[in-house]
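@channel anyone free to eyeball this complex?
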Amino acid sequence: MNITFLFLAVIAAIVAWWLAQQRLTAKPWLDAGLVGDTGASPLPAAKIGLGVFLAVVGCLFTLLISAYSMRMEMGEWRPAPVPKLLWLNTGMLILSSGALQWAQVAARRGRMDRVRAGLLAGGVFALAFLAGQLVAWRQLDAAGYYLTANPAAAFFYLITGVHGLHILGGQVALGRTMDKAWQGVAVGKVRLSVELCATYWHFVLFVWLVLFALLLLTDPIVADNGWFL
Amino acid sequence: MVDIGAAEGIPPAEVEDVELYHAKSWVTKYVFCQDAKVIAIQYSITAISIGLVALVLSWLIRLQLAFPGTFSIVTPSNYYQFVTMHGMIMVIYLLTALFLGGFGNYLIPLMVGARDMVFPYVNMLSYWVYLLAVVVLVASFFAPGGPTGAGWTLYPPQAILEGTPGRQWGIILMLVSLILFIIGFTMGGLNYVVTVLQGRTRGMTMMRLPLTVWGIFTATILALLAFPALFVASVMMLFDRVLGTSFFMPAIVAAGEHLKYGGGSPILFQHLFWFFGHPEVYIVALPAFGIVSDLISVHSRKNIFGYRMMVWALVAIAVLSFIVWGHHMYISGMNPPFGFFFATSTLIIAVPTAIKVYNWVLTLWRGDIHLTVPMLFALGFIVTFVNGGITGLFLGNVIVDVPLSATMFVVAHFHMVMGIAPILVVFGGIYHWYPKITGRMLNERLGQIHFWITFLGAYLIYFPMHYLGFIGVPRRYYELGETAFVPASAATLNVAITAAALIVGAAQTVFFFNVIWSLYKGKLAGGNPWRAASLEWQTPETPPGHGNWGKELPVVYRWAYDYSVPGAGQDFLPQNQPPAIPAR
Amino acid sequence: MAIAFALILVLVVVGSVLFHVLSPWWMTPIASNWSYIDGTITLTFWITGIGYIAIILFMAYCVFRFRHQEGRRAAYQPENTKLEWALGIGTTVAVLALLGPGLVVWYQYIEVPKEATEVEVVGQQWNWSFRLPGKNGLLGTSDPRYVSSDNPLGLNPNDPNGQDNVVIDGGELHLALGKPVKVLLRSIDVVHDFYVPEFRAKMDLMPGLVTYFWFTPTRTGTFEVLCAAFCGVGHDAMRGSVVVDNESDYQTWLRKQHTFAELSARAKKASLTR
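replying in thread with the prediction:
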């Protein structure tokens, strides 16, 4: 649960930072009258909404990692070897995230052609990542680390599966943004959507890097602690 | 009287008016509606309907406990299924959905001065996914083998093994329903949080918000961070049950047969479950705290005492609620020294909670107390909440928990503190806001009858039940039978409790009759029948129309609690009333 | 209305206190060393009970004294920080007064005395089995994988320490009066909980783990064992008994019991004759 606590501490820090700006020590009964600043953020609501959503998703992954590490410490832990293919997949996801960053910059500069190219590239690389993950699953399965082989294998499928679903969900949002971009609306109209997609993709990449690091770190065969009394 | 504040004050920050979705047909106006007020009603009706199922289940449970073996429909399997479904429905599908989806949707936009939630489409989806979750839950009653009988905590390995009723389909549908509920809730929760953050109207600072909004806001943040734990646990258990993984399943010999499971950890599930489960208590309690604060203030014609402390206490409780979950696992074989930590954190959380109680009763001090029906329910809440809170100090203190855990004492405790207490607030809230929602008052005489039977009846059910726990009567027992340590007179006590439970349950028909009758025949309420200061009572129309505020959003000049202000003519000043004297 | 309400609140308080004092329902007489637990409960009752009575009576008084009457206007007092802090600190002190003794007793609860003898309790749907160590005081290893009809507790047949262990499958557990025992708990299927109300102590049997608690029986007699963790449809029928004997009765009983080695030999013989 240490990782969960760390995550919650980060959230708590953000909340504390936000609360600190809300003048919680003010005595509201004293200052009747107009107030210029209500403490709302200048960012659009959609960005705040995405931020909150990503915090929820972050919590989900943190708990999965916590469960993974708690189970790991309980012995009889036979982790599957990390397929080499994951390195290539990681590259794909980095490219995908980079392409969307590029699209975001282009959107700010008003270059619709580059926005389209960036979105398309981002989507294609993300699909490549997903396809790669599926291949990695098949390789593991063939090597005898099938889903029910042992808890370590099950965790591998579960965590990568949830992450894959998360990307798939992002693809829906990306698809809608692409739809808008191809309909020939002004760049200003898609800018927010592109920015949201880029943020989402960077988050997805960040989560993957953490998960990948976790899988790599726990890869060496942990000494069998023995299960018997 | 010159309105100088508006003329010479600091120019208010412009709050962008939002483009509203406008319903084009009957279906988009009442069914797939994006108006938070309609969604609130949909949430409330669904939650209360499924809650009634749970109420009937509780009758069956009580009948079995008072008259073991008399009613043939309550077989051991059915009994455990009823217990499980009763708990699950009440905690999640009724209370959580009603406070956040019901009260949250109705009150947040009105109280912060917004036209609607910030993401109305997602908000609408939230309700429909919730409804789907309820439908899946109900479907489990009709599935082969019936609903799961694993207890609302769904502890593995038992929950997915043969010895537990509903093992075939019930548990699968239960887990799927929970997963759906969490997805639906997250959609709604994003709305509640972001609307409070970004949807506040001009002049509405956080410290001018009514405590109801603070309560729902903090509870939603808790829920958004806690539900993922239940989500993870449900998905993993679903894998174990359907795909044969062993996340929570060690090597098991069940009924002489070696199962294929191995290497999993049941205690891991308990950690995940309670990491959600304890914040869940506060997800229900914090909105109740907020609502009760407002009811007491309005009906005492006095500002809530110690508003700032109330806000700080809410935040403190929310933070602490994430580090107390282990107190549900004192005797689970969890590393014993953890007991020191969790007992300490649990008892510390009593301090901000107690401060809230003090401030409620201190609000009464030198007030002008109108014992209206909402006020009766609010005061009834204080009695049951303090009672249940105190027994929490027994169970939170690790060594006292050892003899009392898993007995009827626990059942009595959590029903008092997170069953009866929040339900009284729900009723209080409905009596209070019904005039705004419908434009008519609920009948007061019927309301009083409803209150007295519910409050006194519930107290009679749960207060004596603690003593069954002291004797040592375990919970979740279909039949205790004759045992040396339980005096025969305890059976009489059980009969009395059941009688009270039947009466309290039946008395709710008074409430439903009142709600329906008043809809047509109730006294016309006018816009602000309680002469309340907060923004939801200042809408141009009652019931508020689509978009809430007519042409222009309200501007807020003061906090929500300007009651009996010295020098003011009337005993309340609405939040959107500009100061009569120049603001200094 | 206000007067009636205040009166009923007072009645609720008085009624609750009278119920507590007069009702016959209270903890069953203790039969172990854990009277400190009962003491902590009594202490908690006093501290929280006083708080409860004070708050409800104060509320009743307010409702009566400040009820709405013609011409009344509420006082205006947004807060009183001093009072709030004083109440907060007072509550903290009261809470610490509960917590302190509680944690001390918890420390005793989890620290097993060295002289305690080990006893194993094994739970499975829906009955209790027991195992006592042999002459050397050691329990042999076990694993659910070894469970069979001849070896219901899953003892490791290759562990020499397990051979002389006394196995009680489905019978009563006997304990010697005044001797501390460390109860090791193990389940081969689902979560159970070993609960004897008279001993006050209890602990879950968590499959995959071995949990423990300890106590010293202080009264002879037969006590009922219940399961206190929901374990399936037969949960309420999962009963057993613990008999606390004086030393000589205990030794007489112990001599009649069979060891693991004897039971497996007998099983082998039975299968051969068949």
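from a first look: Chain B touches chain C through 112 residues (CB under 8 Å).
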